[in-house]
Amino acid sequence: MPDHVWVCRQEQGPCRARLAVIVTFLTAVLHPCSPCFSLSKMSKSCQAAALGPAPNQEDLKKLDRALPTYMLRTTGWDERTAMKRWTETLKWRCEIDDDKMVQRPNPDFFRIHPHYPTYLHLEDRAGRLTYWEILGK
After folding, report:
1. 59-90: string of b/e by CB count within 10 Å (b at 16+)?
2. Does the reported pTM lie above 0.85?
3. How far apart are CA 46 and CA 32, in angstroms?
4. C-alpha span between 92 and 109 (Å, rounded)
5. Cα 120 to Cα 124, 128, 129, 133, 134, distances in angstroms
6. What is the pLDDT of residues 11-60, one digit of tens each?
7. CA 68, 72, 73, 77 torsion: positive or negative?
8. Per-residue 3-state assignment (H helix, E strand, C coil) for the chain
9. Burial of 98 (0-12, 13-18, 19+ CB in 10 A)
10. Alpha carbon of 67 to those of 48, 89, 98, 132: distances in Å?
11. Confidence band for 113, pLDDT divided at 50, 70 and 90
12. In angstroms, rounded to a whole number, what is the distance separating the alpha carbons of residues 106 and 117?
């Protein structure tokens, strides 16, 4: 066994102090809101999920992933439970890569499209084009 490991085991106090310094440094450097952390390839949901199980509300707002009201309503306005559910949702969104989902082509599009014809029609009262879809033709 290396000497430094044995010394650390003997002297739990200094070893824990050194470990705490290392963990604090790595947390600061690897924190998603840290300027040292490379966010260019991570989606906003992944950045928010990386904040951990109890993220700061301000950090979530900066990422445009603030705790939605419907999460609070479904948990009976229990903020702690709502935040837990929201972080689980953000992790799931990160796993499925939600920000790039619409950029990926659907392999079955040309098989499905003939059965659901779509049309752009006249403008509505607000000046927007209306979109018509005939279901299950």
Report:
1. bbeebebebeeebbeebeeeeeebbebbbebb
2. no
3. 9
4. 25
5. 11, 10, 7, 9, 12
6. 444 444 444 444 444 444 444 444 444 555 788 889 999 999 889 999 99
7. negative
8. CCHHHHHHHHCHHHHHHHHHHHHHHHHHHHCCCCCCCCCCCCCHHHHHHCCCCCCCHHHHHHCCCCCCHHHHHHCCCCHHHHHHHHHHHHHHHHHHCHHHHHHCCCCCHHHHHHHCCEEEEEECCCCCEEEEECCCC
9. middle
10. 11, 11, 17, 34
11. confident
12. 16
Token digits of residue 75: 């948990």
At 12, list the tokens: 């739990």
